[in-house]
Amino acid sequence: MTTQDRPVAAPAAIDQEKLDAFMGSFVGDLGAAATTALVLIGDKLGLYRAMADSVPVTSAQLAERTGTRERYVREWLCQQAASGYVEYDAADGTFRLPPEQAMALADEDSPAFIPGAFQLVAAMVKDEPAITERFRTGEGFGWHEHHHDLFAGTERFFRPGYLGNLLTSWIPALDGVQAKLEAGIRVADIGCGHGASAIIMAKAFPNSTFVGSDYHEASIEAARRAAERAGVADRVSFEVAGAHDMRGGPFDLVCVFDALHDMGDPVGAARSVRRQLADNGAWMVVEPFAGDAVEDNLNPVGRIFYAGSTMLCTPASLSQDVGLALGAQAGQQRLTAVLAEAGFSRVRRAAETPFNLVLEVRP
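-> structure tokens emitted (363 positions)
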């Protein structure tokens, strides 16, 4: 039966209050979506950084500071004020970036930095036609096929979380691992992207050595440059390799940050980790936070991750061999089953944040 052949159902009765509430939510969503481009403009042109001192400025003063045109800046500032990103003083016509917003919008080394999230969202929108076609064909869409903004946006989106949690809570939550890192061990970071996690660890633990790997060559090149800038290239190296091509072990610690669910064959990747893991070694698996049932994830965080999973994670897995397509909301129970199938017998939730599950995995 075609769509045209289907009988037309009688229209359901409309609850006006529910419709009004939904439309109110829609206005908020549309405003947030429309703000994406303006946040990217503010980030790229240094508008936020020029306001980071939280001193009120006029649009003319901000334009002069940033080498931009006042008329554009004025409109941008008004939209940012309507969004609650900056404050407006009607008495003297000035705009101010409060210190809390400055922490989130102007400081790339802040654990609250957010422009990378908008950059990632913009990349998803740019690749929408390709993903729409995959809905029709069922084919995958490789990570490397996405718009280049995705790679930088992903690093800038996840790096703040790593800055805020990796050294202060995640590593300390692993049994005996911090002391080993301080003494000096070998660490592998699989699916490292631009290398943020490996570089953070290398700076904190100078006696240890780190090897990051990713199949995406352009990301590995970016990671190498980042290591040079950070002054840790003597103890962290990066190589182009897929998870199944892991070599150079044994490693005392293996890390996979927000990447296991993207893999086409996570069981095979886990088996590779097991072969390269040292006796008494540990594997830290960091994954997007999720409950085990769909209804557990129908919340603001799940909304974000299901969107990313639809546009990025599931297509990436489907583009690879096996194509298990765990998705970004797999949950601990499903992840544990994958790890058990690969031969790991001990899986423990070591830590969590509103955005991440941290699992300690051992043979």
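The domain at 25-107 is CATH 1.10.10.10 (Arc Repressor Mutant, subunit A).
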